[in-house]
Structure formats: C-alpha cells, structure tokens
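Dear Dr. L.,

I hope this message finds you well. Following up on our conversation about the binding site, I have prepared a predicted three-dimensional model of the protein together with glutamic acid. For your records, I am including the exact sequence and ligand specification that went into the calculation, followed by the structure tokens. Please feel free to forward this to your student if that is useful.
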Amino acid sequence: MTPTVRPEWTSARRIVVKIGSALLVDRATGRLRATWLNALADDVATLVDTGKEVILVSSGAIALGRHALGLPKGALELEQSQAAAAVGQVSLAHAYQNVFQARGRATAQILLTLGDTEERRRYLNARRTFEMLLAHKAIPVVNENDTVATAEIRYGDNDRLSARVASMVSADCLVLLSDIDGLYTAPPGTDPAATHIPLVDAITPEIEAMAGDAGTELSKGGMKTKVAAARIAMAAGTDMVITTGKPLHPLRLIGEGAVCTWFIAPSDPVTAKKRWIAGQLEPKGHVTVDVGAEKALGQGKSLLPAGVTAVAGSFDRGDAVIIRNAQGRELGRGLIAYAHSDAERIIGKKSGEIAGILGFEGRAELIHRDDMALTRIRDE
Ligand code: GLU
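The resulting structure of the complex is given below.
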C-alpha cells in the first residue's frame, strides 16, 4: 500500500502535540530519553520554520520525579504523585528549554488545572496567554498542574487535557503520540483478529466499544481516554490523529504517510462558546430526552421541557449537563436554564405551564440551541 498523507496534516496551521511519559522517560532508568527528545525537537522546529504553530502537551513529570525521589514502583498515592510531579516538572521544563534553545526558540511552561478550562473566565484568560506566546514564536509546553490538582479537580490524563487545550486555541490538528499506531477493532496484543482503523468520522458506540481500558504504569490514558479526547477535539472542529511515537521523528513520519488513525472533525463551523461547552469534562448531571426531542435536536432546535423524560445530578441554572437519548447514548452537552429542583418539576410539561408550576416566568427552553453542542449524529 502506498502511504498517503492526509490533507488535514498538510493544511494544519496550528498543531497541538501530546507526548506521553512512556516516550519521554526510560522506564528502567527513570531518565529522560534525550535522543528521542532531540529528534522530536527537530520535527517541531521544522514545522515552526514552515509557518506552523506548535503547542506541546507533555507528560513525564511524575515519571521523572518518582525516580528522583526514590519512590517505589507501582501505583502511587495521590500525595506521592504530587510530590513526584513537583520535582519532575523542573527537569521536564528544563529539558524542553535546552532542546529548543539549541534551535533558537523560547520555551514557555504552562501548568493547567481542570478549573482553568471549565470556568469560562479562566479559560479565556489562558487562551489569551497562548495567543501571545504563539505570536512571539515561543513553544508552549503544557502539563497538568499535578501539585495542586486533587482527585476531584484533575484531568488525570494528558489525552483529555491536550484535547481541551486544542479546543481552547482552536487548533487545526491534535496529535497524540502513543505507544501504538492508532485505534484497532480490538486490543491487538491479545486479539490476533484485531484490525487497524485508519479513519473515524464520528464517535459511535462501536468506536467507543473498541477502545479498551488498558493504560500502562507510566501513561495514565489507555485508548479510552484517547477516544474521549477525540470526542472533545471533533466537537471543537479539530482533527485528531493517533500515531506511534516510538520511532525517532514521529511528526516527520506523519508527513511521510505513517500508519495512523485519523479522527476527522465535521466541517460545519462551531462557535467558540459551543466549543467550550462541548469540551466540559465534568458536567453536573444529565437529562434524558424522548424520541421526538432527539429528532428535534438533530434538526437544530432547542430542547423544551416537554421532550425531557428524566433529569439527574445536582446542577444549578447555567451548569453544563449531558443530553442523552432514551437508550442512554450521549447526544451532546448544554448549559441548562433551570436548577435541578425546578427542572424536575417542569419536565414533560408544556412551556406555557412553566410559570404556573414554578411561580416565576423562566425561559421556554430547558436548553437553548445556542447553549448546546451536539455530538455529531449520524444520518440514519
Ligand atoms: N501529568 C502527568 C505527568 O506529567 C501525566 C499524566 C498522563 O500520563 O496522562 O507525569
């Protein structure tokens, strides 16, 4: 088969690249894989020289720090990971600074927590910082701020973090450098019948089922978090590609037709606000809609209380919730116009009855279409 290079790669102007710990840190010695990093820096410098903007999302802080602190092998307690990250992040940032300085580029360290992308004001602030750095041709290197991120407020994996960053900066392409060259119909290590999937244009339940659970000791995400990342990226209009980062020069290889799985975003433009809604990692609850409402949403209509059969979770007015169909499949996400206690009382009712039930005049829609980001629904 002759290798093909996707036009999405050739035309991408703003690219986010996620680098996993297993690529950057030698598992046996806990040391940085310097040859690999230098080759990667060459690839990044070449992309930047040809007019592209590159943001790196790099793991490796915990892997480097745990070795430096002499922590035991195996799973770490949260506090141990946080301490390891605090130590390792210094080496990580330093390593990037060295390789990019040698290529005449400034490096910027950006540490994010979940709140920085879930809260709109902080999200907009962070976005401005990225824009400024890129305008000055610096290379932003992002990681989760593991030292302060407790269990409830952390991404936990850099797959989804990188998708949130890609969505925040409206990247054209997100590259996940992995230890595998893409998505397979089943885990290829255990199932000899597994076949590689070169292209995905919608996250269907079948695609979700193909993503097993497995992560390794060094990398938090398995294929599952990668598919979750694809969902966020695609909803934001960003194409995503999974390829192996094992060889030297993995980015150059994408441009030479390396084996990859491409997740192609729908081409209809998404507003910045919808992009932000779609990427919310921690919706506060969900609403279940009936068949009629599902159809209406597919036609671009708002969600009215009449089409909702159930609400769950604890949300306030303006919080993000997941919209599910009768089978439980996620149709999209939206900002709900009523708090849970009120929503519960008006579902199944006509909008004209709302004032009578609640005693105040609220919005006719439970979720307005402008406050809603739908997952692409396949034309049946
Ligand atoms: N933020 C973690 C680190 O730098 C990695 C998370 C992940 O592997 O996805 O070590």
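In brief: Residues 21, 59-63, 85, 143-144, 146, 157-158, 219-221 surround glutamic acid (CB under 6 Å).

With kind regards,
A. P.
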